[in-house]
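Sat 14:20. Reprocessing the chain from the morning session after the first attempt stalled halfway. Input below, unchanged.
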Amino acid sequence: MANNTPPPKSPFKWVVISVGGVLAIAHIGVLGHLIRPQYPVINFPPGDYSSYKVEATRDGYTVEYKANDPRVLESNRELHLDQDRKGIFGNDVKRREYRRDEYTMDGSRNLGGGVFDPEGKSLVKSEECIRADAGARSQGAMAGTSIAAGALVPAIVNVPYIGWLAAGWVTLLGGRVGSDIGSEVGKIFNNC
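Finished this time. Tokens:
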């Protein structure tokens, strides 16, 4: 006798399909989270003259922020003066003046001072710093020349044919290196 009843439905199959579906959706969510780039949140202090620019790529990001932009305001003036007076050779006298001023935000005229390098040191050197640098370079050059002449020249002079020339090169190189080292040491000791 043939049994025409269908086999009983297995709840195990539906449990596996449900758990697999949940894991697949979670996996897609994790991949979406990992693929989407995450940028840091940077809160710049707002101001009337502040500006910023952010460039973000897959390799990283760069931020350019200016807290006081524009730092210098400009004023341009022109004066044209045409007169009918005759000059020495009979030419008309024409006078033209052009003036360009820069002002800081507090209204004072910019006289070109206060320029700073990336480390924050003033690029305008004072007279004391120039004198100290010159002295330090001179002392360093003398020390470098004497060290090179005393330690290296006696050995180099004995090189056949070019020893006399190479000894001069070594002496000059010692002076130049000593001058550079003396300048650096002078900057450190004199706060320049």
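Residues 46-113 form one domain.
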